[in-house]
Write a structure and sequence with these properties.
eight-stranded mixed β-sheet, 2 domains, four-stranded parallel β-sheet, homotetramer, Rossmann fold, alpha/beta
Chain lengths: ~350, ~350, ~350, ~350
């Protein structure tokens, strides 16, 4: 008999339900007796003892459904050691609820922040298994995260739509893709949709190089230019600022968003009309793509296996096309970023894509 | 033998290519000899004599393709009588090019602005046939325009994506749908995607009613509210301002866009987190949906028939499921708007949707 | 206080859930007290008293979902007056269950067969409201049925996929579209996807005309031909047979499906390779398109209104863009078919499409 | 200056155009002078000297387009050494055309058969670079082929559609997925869409185990069962036959297709209604998915690099997330198959999926 707590934390994404279904199906089909406690709205549910019992019927038909049946919330790691507004010790409360329910382990689905807290709970003596969920694919220790490929599909589709309209008019189009610190999503959506310029947080851009790339296209007879910009793209000069200085600069900017500021600059330097599109939260929504469904189901199944074996303290990740277990302490607090010298960047440049560097 | 000029003007949309293919196929399969002059980038091509000869192979494979193979541009009707920067009389130049090429007629695809200029050319003695293209479905004299249903699909998909993510978090989500003056697109996408509140230019909203609707949902246990807002949605008090006053107010606003201002107000009044999504130009892009392809092909075919019969001065429209011809002078300058007392509005209200009125 | 029974009968299709959600939402938001009895698996549930109580939460989130939450089954009208295998009188049993539950009315969603039985129940004294569901759009008394446009989207997408592969190879491709008696689906999907030949039950084809159309394409330099065939397409000579003779001929045929027989004939007459694709039940599946969601929601809302007004014995239909009520006795047993002389057929021919006639 | 011949051979698939665009873009942006000879319709074009000169504009806008702009054909390796019907030596003719045009190399896109012929040309002294195209992902020497993920998306969508309709009715549904020898496509689409039973060529099935799995579902209260069957799925007893005996048995069968025979058997053994869907060539069609566009573009870019370096005789493949070059002699004639003991199969079984073994 196994008693398992489960929660989804942080920004939601596609295939969370698929992954949870995978865990539960693999436990149930193992023949083991199980009880599943679904904590609602992320760590909040664990802190305040807010849960509901789940059975296999709760997981029927959710393979293809976006969002998370458990709800989610952001519970910042930064303040996890601080008492809540009523003076409650959040970490102690989570431990209390865990032990009171006599849980064998917690299955936690989340991204970077979530993993820091998960690792803290492990250090505090709880049995924890995590699953790597994020549209950013920025989790250290795994080649891939679920949500990523689905978000690539949506961002790609957004740029595809812009492509047909750009082709009809003579303009520069900027599409802002999600990703504050890491550019995998923008990079893949940009290459997939034939963007002409791709600007990533990891490769600070030179506005003059960007303008050069636009001009080069004009010279080759192209009427339009499409720029895929990550939310966290940054200019070379801003990259030299301290974090504090940069934050201050952003606050004083006419637009907090990089795309609108970039649009202004390009217009000033080229005189060309610029249009901005921000698909925003759409990129987290909708049903998971086939790739993510297979991927999340596989990870979920292997998480179930680890639970049956009583192997805790791991993130279930993916390395060289195999599902692997990665010690949580190796994952927590580390970020996987786009390497400016990686082969995909070189290949993108070979295709004529400018990174503004 | 027929010599036909063709151009697409204004913001592009889906099914422009499908409509042009319809015209050309119906002319060619009639057995008549034809020559087609495709003017590039809207009226600009006609003004400056910029065209290319088109044959049937140019229209092969474009039924499903978004944008327009002829390019487009906005040539404001307001300034059409003013000389260009080199002193060229634009209207005279269009007439000159028309008669120089010895054209039998012009086929013009466009929306409201385009139709005003098309009607002016008719008054100036040119033979004109128009086709109603706009994602806004705001053209007078026709039940439907092509581009509309395709844009509904995209805006609906955007709200669908937001729906799954809204369901996981406890928030108010605003999706800004295209439509400055007319709300058909927002209304249809809102009903199709199960939006809780729909705000249209034609029905000025009371912010307190909007907040009331959000609260009512909370009381019924719903964690989130989705608001579909037309770009041109307006509050009851702003609707009382003169056009000039309103423009001034918009200029001084922190955000020019209604959705961001609305988000601020809702946050102030409810304390709930609000997120804004702006699919923007995506709504004009991508390939046409099946409905628009059939519809645009049918209109195109009937336009070809009118040309063969030498019947000019008409927009090819759609009334009660039949393709009809509507005199251009009846169409030009008139706007079709959502009637606040129409049955679809009443039905939407019966479904529990709030219009903030 | 209203007690309402609800059931979905016949082959399922998209937007059944959307329509039921519309009925229930409009009843609930009217402020009236209501109880909803959902009979499971069509008339079977009514016959055998198999139902579950539904509340508004059952209808939450189902607007976009395909299938029917109530299940469906085919209960042939032909045998409705015959006792079941245990000697049970089916009609009496339905009446019994209706009166035992003290229902105010039955809401029945279905196609042609379903409407015959619904009308019979009306004649037997039950209060009945029906909603027109079918991917065939063949219900008399309404311009449109829900499911139709969603099925057009899927069949169109199937032919689109074939188009790209046909373009690469030199072949004839046949796509078999659903529709045994009526060709609206094939006609619309065929025009939408640029099929070269469209064969419908309503327009018997001459195989020599089909071959002629293929040859004409070859002469014009096209490498491939795409034929959209309705399941019930029929040759001119077969159309002369009696129903009985035709059934016999079909039974003895190498292939029961028209597409495979047609493929054989074309291969024999032209020597060209022919490939057949049968999307089949896919056409009933998946989520409803935006158009169907709006449409079904509107019909559902108006059905709710009729119930509140106590107006029974009607199908809620659609005429000239307005929702209308049509007496059931006018609908039952009649089929709406493609008129070979309708303008859409003429327009399709103007586009160069052959109907093999 | 480089003179490059290019051709696409075998069944077409998604991302062929994307891959060719990648090659050409990477060559052009390298600054090298290039001439590209596009041979039409696969090896046929090379044999008969049928080609057209391609420039960069031919590759504009084709990233997202399905099919191949060069056309394709099947030229069986088995008969490549036999003269054609006019006595022409095909291999000599290909060599003749290659040397007459003074080509530096041939870029060949294709699957297994194509690679055998490509390797033969290499042995005959031609410089050859190949790119792995196939929806089957069965090419030895590469983790992935382009076309595969796009086909998974389509097959998954087909089963998704069936899922909604299956849910409404009480039936067994069989979906036949492409793959005569290799089951990767069926396996991935089956897991992605939540199929209950998956039958692959690599894992011969026992019909009694299949029936057992259907019955087990019924006992758990499921109304329907979905079976994803590869075209080449085979029963345990048929797997014992010699190739010749099996071919003979197939010829004599009532249905050549495994799904229809399986349907008959299941109906006989369970009495349950069974429906068959065959998406067929749809799986090769439509535009490439985002994953395939990125993947094919990367391979294309690296192929361009090899050409610039004068490194010939390789297939450009993918290993452990990096693009690699694989000697053609290692690839030709080998098939990559699903390993019944691989972790994905084990994980699928942990999810409760039956493989009928």
């Amino acid at each position: 008999m196994k008693r398992i707590g489960m929660l989804t934390s942080g920004g939601d994404c596609q295939a969370l339900n698929a992954a949870m279904r995978g865990v539960v199906k693999s436990l149930i089909f193992s023949g083991e007796q199980i009880e599943i406690y679904g904590f609602l709205n992320g760590y909040q549910g664990l802190i305040y003892g807010n849960y509901r019992m789940l059975d296999v019927s709760d997981f029927s038909g959710i393979l293809t459904r976006g969002g998370t049946i458990l709800g989610s919330s952001r519970t910042p790691f930064k303040t996890i050691r601080q008492p809540d507004e009523n003076g409650l010790d959040k970490v102690e409360s989570m431990k209390h609820n865990y032990f009171k329910l006599n849980l064998d382990c917690l299955v936690i689905l989340g991204g970077n922040g979530t993993h820091k807290t998960a690792n803290l709970l492990r250090e505090e003596g709880l049995n924890v298994i995590t699953l790597p969920k994020t549209i950013d694919n920025d989790l250290w220790g795994t080649d891939m995260t679920f949500g990523f490929q689905s978000a690539v599909d949506i961002a790609t589709n957004a740029i595809d739509c812009i492509h047909t309209t750009a082709d009809s008019h003579s303009r520069v189009f900027i599409v802002e893709v999600m990703g504050h610190k890491v550019g995998f999503l923008t990079l893949n959506a940009g290459v997939a949709s034939g963007a002409d310029i791709i600007l990533l947080p990891e490769i600070p851009y030179d506005i003059d190089k960007v303008v050069e790339a636009i001009d080069a296209r004009k010279k080759r007879g192209s009427r339009f230019t499409i720029i895929a910009v990550a939310e966290g793209a940054i200019s070379k000069e801003d990259a030299k600022l301290s974090k504090k200085e940069y934050k201050k600069k952003l606050k004083e900017a006419t637009h907090p968003s990089v795309s609108y500021r970039l649009a202004d600059e390009i217009y000033k330097k080229t005189g060309q009309e610029v249009r901005v599109t921000v698909p925003g939260h759409m990129q987290r929504g909708g049903g998971p793509c086939a790739y993510d469904r297979v991927f999340a189901s596989r990870l979920g199944a292997e998480a179930g296996k680890l639970i049956l074996q009583g192997k805790y303290g791991f993130m279930v990740g993916y390395k060289n096309r195999e599902v692997v277990k990665v010690p949580l302490e190796e994952v927590a607090g580390k970020l996987k970023m786009v390497d400016p010298n990686s082969s995909i960047i070189k290949e993108a440049k070979m295709l004529g894509i400018s990174f503004g560097d």
